[in-house]
Amino acid sequence: MTHRIVLHVGTPKTGTSYLQDVLFNNRARLRRAGIHYPANRFDAHFLAALDLMQLPWGGLEQEAVGAWDRLATAARQANGTVIISHEILARAGRAHVERAMTTLGRDDGAEIQVVVSARDLMRQIPAEWQENVKHRASLSYSTFLRQIVDPERDSRIGSWFWSVQEIPDILQRWAGALPPENVQIITVPRPGADSGLLWQRFTEAFGLMGLDLELMTDRSNPSLGAAEAALIRRINLQVNAVLPPPEYRPLVRELLAHQTLSKRRDSPRLSVPAELRSWVREREEEWISSLRAAGYRVVGDLDDLRGADFLPDAMWSDPDHPDEAAVSDAAVAAISRLLTESAVAQREINRLHAEVDHAWREVERAHLRPTYRLRAKIVRRAQGSRVGRGALKAYRKLRRR
Amino acid sequence: MSPTLPPFDHSTLLGRSWSWVAALQRGTTIPWPLWRDDETTPSERPTTLPYLPGAQQLELLRRTNAVAHARGRTVPAGLADRILRAGSTDRGRGDLPLNGGELASFGPPAVDPTTLPATELLRVAAGLIARDLAIAPLPARPPAGRRGRQDLVGDPWAIRFAADGGWRRRLWARRTGAVLGTDLATLAAHAWADRCLDGAGSDLGGWLAERCGPERLPAVLDLAAHARRTAQRYGMKRTHIVLDTGLMADRRFPISLPEVDLDDLELIRRVGRALGTLLPADQRRDTLEQMVLRQAAERSQPAATTWSVPEPFLSLLHEHAERQVQVLRRHRYPVLGQLNGIVPNPAQGPGEPDQDRVLARAIDLTIDLHREETT
């Protein structure tokens, strides 16, 4: 029944959260246009990706049991175009890709297209370190860089980074057996471009042009400055042993990182240090050449994958040796926000205590009523004899019916 | 259906790789660096496989062939195919190409599969075992004995099996509390083992690194704190520090811990992580306990490896233990056993899972799970 399945498999930090938010919030409108985004919760495709790759994720994988098969079944049953999107799919190995393709109906005639959204490596590198930090990592920026430039790629960091960022390799894994016209690359515009340009490219790639979609969304994934990232890393060093992931996520990642510290836009942004920029630029040029030669459809411009001009060295802010005054400012902002939230939570706790106290008093008043006391006396008497216990048992059985 | 592909050229890396794949499927144990084509090598690519498997999958099959041969058996075709098609689970390196030819422009570097660490092969093996276990029927759980009226805190590993052991209180007419303990190194290993059965993720060293420091100890290892909380409920005279559970056991129901070691628990941990997306938490726990743990216990030698922890944590726990002995002695709790038994024995030495042995057990388990098919 399905005509076309569009598999958006990466990469992280390319506007994917915004796209997925819009798709989720507009499922009904999309369905009327013959486009399906099968999801009963906003992270359904993330959970499906975890299931596909048997990937633990701080306990969240427990919510992913069977998620890929459910998504694939819904995709095959839909009539029209189906969009599946999550950036960690970029990491999939060949066995995972094969399972994905067969369960989506490749061998039964389904047309499958693979889409990758891509941004220049010069911005992706610091963004990935920051994302690690927001996921409880405590490694320094310099350690992170050392691991990703290691050609062996045998560290946990290095292997993950390249598996989700090296676009030619991702496309070889996901689309190696597809004709190039079934593969699309959406490039993220360079800094300074019109803020609506990326969304325009997404609508073109996914066939959403002309649709009246609700684009208001408050879920964004803004970046941290160098001082703010340093603060979160220090917090991780302190709390990882005592704050389990389900508590870390809402408090540190969401409340502190996303809702508080990322709003501080005046602190220097993270970037690649001077000694690595030539090496990064070489990688970018290799990718651009390879992707151009492959003949994939490009929405945007492959030259967007060439990082912006370098910052003067004097402006580079090292998150491993940050401006301590800036870190202190950020810490005060974080503490203020935590205190505010704590006060709100305490008010709610007090309100709930008052409700519970009231309920208990009502129960006690009920116990003092003469009719209740008489019933309690009868039950106590009955429990003292075998005949009485039998009668009570029969009575309770009748009541349950 | 995957397309039929033309015969491959033995002179190229790709051709040589496919000929090795075909030989592995037939049961070869020749490692990749020594693999040479000969006239008996089939020229057709195995059409059951839509892509060239990674070095991890190939090496795992080779080692599985070797174990099967040592047992006088061969790996069934279905299992060989599943190994080659298996994905790697958990975090780690992606599909690795075989070395010996032109370097690829992108992707991870090519490798000699014989040099892969056991941890990389375990990522494949654990996923395979998990998939097999997820669809296997669970054996019936033995009936749990009734627990006595004594509340137990402390060593979670002993508590887990104390309930199944069905021990009963012998003498005490009133409620009492018992803090089950042992030397802190063994206790730490027990606490980690208990978490493994519940599907918790960190390896032993990682778990300790996150929680142990000179002034920091995970709550589960703080016997003094357990005793304090128990005494608040039952009073100090009815709070027993139990360092020898044999002294507690009723003759009919002794507490018996399964005879397994850290290598078994590390395998359980890895399989548990892979089971995380396949089974809900309670079924995962039952599967790990009823199938993997029980099988490991049945297979083990009578004298299981001593449980311990790696350095520097062994030394850290030694210091913590000495402090706890002082505290417990000061409060004069009744003790079953020797209070100094909390301090790790110097002869115990550090310990941690050996990943090569863990891999060997994973391969054994993989073969055992396909015992009926193996010829």
Task: Describe the structure in brief.
Chain A is built from 16 helices and six strands.
Describe what you observe in this structure:
With 401 residues, chain A is of the alpha/beta class. Helices cover 55% and strands 7% of the residues of chain A. Chain A is built from 16 helices and six strands. Chain A has helices spanning 16-25, 27-32, 44-53, 67-77, 94-103, 121-134, 141-149, 156-165, 167-175, 197-206, 226-239, 245-258, 274-294, 324-368, 370-383, 386-400, and strands at residues 4-8, 35-36, 81-85, 111-118, 183-187, 297-299. A six-stranded parallel sheet of chain A has the order 2-3-1-4-5-6, sandwiched between helices. In chain A, helix 3 (44-53) packs across helix 4 and helix 15 (370-383) crosses helix 16. The mean pLDDT of chain A is 92. By secondary structure, chain B is mostly helical. Chain B has helices at 13-26, 55-70, 77-85, 118-135, 156-165, 184-197, 204-211, 223-234, 262-275, 281-299, 313-331, 355-369; strands at residues 151-154, 177-180, 239-242, 335-336. In chain B, strands 1-2-3-4 form a four-stranded parallel sheet. In chain B, helix 5 links the parallel strand 1 (151-154) and strand 2 (177-180). The longest helix of chain B has 19 residues, at 281-299. Chain B is elongated. The two termini of chain B are 29 Å apart.
Largest sheet of chain B: 4 strands, parallel
Strand content of chain B: under 5%
Shape of chain A: globular
Order of helices and strands of chain B: HHHHEHEHHHEHHHEH
Rg of chain B, Å, rounded:
25 Å
Give the key terms.
heterodimer, A: 401 residues, alpha/beta, six-stranded parallel β-sheet, B: 375 residues, mainly alpha, four-stranded parallel β-sheet, 12 helices, 4 strands, disordered N terminus
